[in-house]
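ok new one. same drill as before - structure tokens go in, u give me an amino acid for every spot. 256 of them this time. try not to just spam alanines like last time pls lmao
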């Protein structure tokens, strides 16, 4: 196994390199701010997927998360660095702390999952690919918008998150062979419904912290249930999602 200090240094250098690359003028000319931000999200999320294969204790991951948090905070506070290096993070047209929430979410999930790699992998896959691709689909292809607490999101983006979240549950557990397909599909359906709901009502990028933890605890809740319980949960979660959307529309109407 790679020495922890060397691994931490290598990952931080990779993060800084991606910030420089995606924050440069050439990247700015070729890619929109949101695409650059989500590319950084996907790259660092992909690195995070293999952290259990690199580190054997959560202490090292917390060191990594703390140093990454400090680096990102320094970039936020120093205008020259924010302009030259932080372009991939800070040129979007909304206020977000998602960059700071990301390392904290990863480290917390690592601590919670312990030696159970599947229960670390599934939430990280949702955070890495579901959240990012949902945002990109919503921005570039979204036509049907719904109001949120800090702006709006799109039906297309939420459907993308729902579909990817479902796959992120079904594929890893299906390959492992630990759960039969019927119950597994219901677990994936329930988790995807609630992840879509949580993402719709979070704001300012805190979903980078909240989503992986919600996904982890939902797995803990749903894995022991039988098919009848999972079916009833699916009906309840569908109703919750519809009720939340109705509430958001009502709040938007009252503002107008």
């Amino acid at each position: 196994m790679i020495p922890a200090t060397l691994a931490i240094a290598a990952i931080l250098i990779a993060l800084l390199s991606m910030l420089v690359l995606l924050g440069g003028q050439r990247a700015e000319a070729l890619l929109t701010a949101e695409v650059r931000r989500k590319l950084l999200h996907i790259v660092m999320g992909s690195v995070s997927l293999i952290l259990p294969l690199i580190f054997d204790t959560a202490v090292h991951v917390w060191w990594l998360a703390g140093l990454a948090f400090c680096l990102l905070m320094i970039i936020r506070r120093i205008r020259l660095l924010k302009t030259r290096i932080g372009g991939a993070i800070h040129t979007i047209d909304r206020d977000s702390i998602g960059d700071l929430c990301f390392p904290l979410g990863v480290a917390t999930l690592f601590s919670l999952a312990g030696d159970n790699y599947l229960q670390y992998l599934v939430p990280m896959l949702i955070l890495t690919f579901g959240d990012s691709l949902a945002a990109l689909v919503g921005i570039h292809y979204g036509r049907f918008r719904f109001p949120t607490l800090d702006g709006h999101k799109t039906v297309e983006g939420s459907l993308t998150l729902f579909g990817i979240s479902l796959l992120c549950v079904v594929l890893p557990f299906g390959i492992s062979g630990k759960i039969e397909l019927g119950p597994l599909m219901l677990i994936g359906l329930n988790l995807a419904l609630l992840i879509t709901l949580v993402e719709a009502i979070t704001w300012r990028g805190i979903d980078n912290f909240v989503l992986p933890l919600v996904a982890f605890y939902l797995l803990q809740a749903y894995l022991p249930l039988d098919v009848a319980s999972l079916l009833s949960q699916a009906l309840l979660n569908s109703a919750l999602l519809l009720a939340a959307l109705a509430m958001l529309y009502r709040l938007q109407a009252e503002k107008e």
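The beta strands are 145-148, 151-154. and btw The two ends are 58 Å apart (CA to CA).
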